[in-house]
Amino acid sequence: MGATLELWPVEATQPKPVFSTFVLTVSDAKHKVYGSAVTFYEKFSADYLTEEQKGLLEYSDDSKFALNVNKSICILSHWPFSEDFETWLRWLHAIVASGEPQTIPIERYITQLLDEVPFPSPRILLQLSSDTHDRVILTQPEDLPLPRSAASFKQLLLNLGSENCLQVLLLILTEQKILIHSLRPDTLTSVAEAVCTMLFPFKWQCPYIPLCPLGK
To answer: Is 116 left (phi over 0), alpha (psi -120 to 50) or beta?
Structure first.
């Protein structure tokens, strides 16, 4: 959906950060990149707006409204570690949102995860801070015949039900076009991945787009 600039009452409370996942694929869906993102709002300075833009927003310097912009921080990985990445991203956002001076630059945390954490490895413990709760454990997935994915069969059954799941299985076995609609991107991704995984040991050979942008 892209970034949006919104006008809220000054006393309004900002929404809590929202975590979501997505999958990037090539046309044959053979190679996948798993995305994990935390989306949040920040105050936006009116100094960056032109007079024309202020007019479109009906904003004035003495307004009782404040400008807010949505942003995201994201991790792309070939490994579907969405739960672990959610912990890390929310922790990173909490550091930035606190506004407190940090002894370690935020870029150093990012570099440490991307360049210095060895993987694959049987088990990795990331201690994020002195708090024992601030930790992420990355465990190398078992070498199983079932391909690794971001599938959640629990979400598939909860959202579609057993009858609809059987209907979807029939559709994918006969290579029909399938469109799954949801207002929750995280649920949409896990369900779409589960639909493809339930074909095992067969593979979905048709184009696979786990998440389409909303139309205007």
So the answer is: alpha
Burial 83-119 (b: 16+ CB within 10 A, else e): ebbbbbbebbbeeeeeeeeeeeeeeebeeebeeeeee
pLDDT of residue 65: 81
Is the Cβ–Cβ distance between 151 and 190 less than 8 Å?
Answer: yes
**pLDDT averaged over every residue in the chain:** 78
Global pTM?
0.70
Q: Which of 38, 1, 44 is nearest to 21 (CA)?
A: 38
Render pLDDT for 47-102 as a digit per residue (tens, 0 to 9). Answer: 887 888 888 777 777 778 888 888 888 888 888 888 888 888 888 888 888 777 77
Output the CA torsion sign for 3, 88, 184, 187: positive
Nearest alpha carbon to residue 195 among 167, 168, 160, 157 = 168
What is the average per-residue pLDDT within 12-26? 82
29: left (phi over 0), alpha (psi -120 to 50) or beta: left
**Residue whose structure tokens are 């936006």:** 44
